Amino acid sequence: MRIYILGIGLLAFLLGACIENDIPYPYIPGEIQEFEIEGQTEDTKIDATKRTVVLTVDELVELEELKVTKLVANSEAKILPDEAVCASAKQFPDFSFTSLSDLPSNANTKINFTNPVKILLRTYQDYPWTVTVNQVINRTINVENQVGQPVIDELNHIVLIYVSASQSLKDVKINALELGGRNGRLVPDPSGVKDFSRPQQFAVYRGEKYLGLWTVDVVQTETTSSVGEVEIWAKKAIVSGGVKAGSTPTIEYKKALDSSWSQLDASAVNMLSATSFKATIAGLEDGTVYQWRILVDGVAGSVGSFTTEKITVVPNLNFDTWIQSGKNWFANSIADDYEAAGAYWATGNEGVTSSLAGGNDPITVPVEGSDAYKGKAARLRSITGVTLVGAAAGNLFIGKYKTNMMKPSASVTFGRPYTGARPTKMTGYYKYKPEPINNGGSIPGTLTKDQCHIYIKLWDTAGNEFAYGEFVGSVEVTSYTKFTIDIDYKNLNARPAAMTIVATSSRYGGEFEGAKVVGQVGHGSTLYVDEFELLYE
Q1: How far apart are CA 304 and CA 240, in angstroms?
Q2: How many angstroms separate the CA atoms of 233 and 284, rounded?
Q3: Mean pLDDT, residues 111-118
């Protein structure tokens, strides 16, 4: 018997030795979610697809020793910046932190950002990220009889200044030459340099710190104006340009296919300096090619062109289109609010009407007649006592909904693809009856009565939110009342890739902790919305 048992044990050992460990490591991406540095002047731009972070600071910041004040990655990731650029690699935290006060007293988050910095996020795999800090230096340049704005080559430290043909290059009067920003100084002192018959060089310092050698070249030109950048919207364009010092520009514009020019009223032209201006051309048609030019003393300069943004139709903004399937209502032409063609708007109806949630009535339904402002409208009603989640806010949004009982907060995906013109306002009509808070929610924890919430968001191709506007209602409104939302753009260079519009009868009804709603909700709070409209400039 002993021999038999030993034989079985030996066989098991030999078989075990032949078994390879083929169980793969889990795939967990390393993602930077938040990143901030001292002296930051603009919102952080994070591109999760390219794994890049871009930050902007002003001219007073020292890039060589710049503190990271917030760095948040997903909880599974270990943070490993390039040791060569850290002031103290051993003292840089390898975990996420939301402020410096979260860190031990001996932590050191200073990094040399003079060049793009590599930061490795390590989970079961390695994910390299690149962090770039752009320093904006306001370089003020002005000489007598200057024409237009100077051309500044930041990379090669070269400045090209145009002056009128009558200006002698051997006697150029410099009114301002700040190549190192407002706290910089130049050697030699530019006030004593007048001969620009050949390029002059200036050493730039900030305090005693040497910033580099710049070359300044002054060139005569017969031109009296130059077209510059254009900020383009759907129905307006903000044009900029340069003119001969002391002159007054006249702006003309037309559709590219027209033969005659229209003159912009002088009140729309804003002189930024003696040689530069901005002007707003309004009343344009969307999706149209235009041309514009500058006249100085009746002489036209070169012609610039631009194409206005194209306005696209957002489905069912008037909420007249609905379809019912079983108990559930859908604000689309088909009974789907997820991925089917024709699905654009979504609600949480399928979640609350399911048997697992207690088989409640839908929380978002169409109404008409006296309950609508025009045609049909949407009625959103909040309820408490919902199985599993505790409460549900009446909701209607552009996006997708698919019930996730394991993680209810993940049921909602906000936003659908949108590449149309950027709206500047959103209007609509609403009425609202808020009810007392009764679900024991803790966020924000200060409400006694419910609030409704209507908002709009736009994202760029990298997934960065760059536009937002909202309306919050906290009092009872018994008849339809117009609301207007101003949309704030954080980045005027970004263009839309996705958009959402959200309406909810309980502002904090989407706040979850685990499977439970922890936002404050009042049972029976009811919001009616109708005739939404996006406005464009």
Answers
A1: 11
A2: 9
A3: 95
User: pLDDT at position 304, please?
Assistant: 96
Collapse the DSSP code of 438 into the 3-class scheme (helix H, G, I; strand E, B; otherwise coil) and give the result: coil
Round to whole Å and give the CA distance between 226 and 275.
10
Pair type for strands 269-271 and 209-221: unpaired
pLDDT of residue 407: 87
* Whole-number CA gyration radius for the chain: 31
pLDDT at residue 207, rounded to an integer: 84
Q: Is the dihedral of CA 421, 425, 430, 434 positive or negative?
A: positive
**Sign, CA torsion 266/267/268/272:** positive
Tokens of 211: 């910033």
DSSP 314-332: PTTTT----EEETTEEESS
How wide is the angle at C-alpha 282 spanned by C-alphas 280 and 288, nearest 5°?
110
Domain annotation for the chain: domains and CATH numbers:
32-135 (2.60.40.2340), 140-221 (2.60.40.2340), 225-308 (2.60.40.10), 323-536 (2.60.120.890)
Mean pLDDT score of the chain: 93
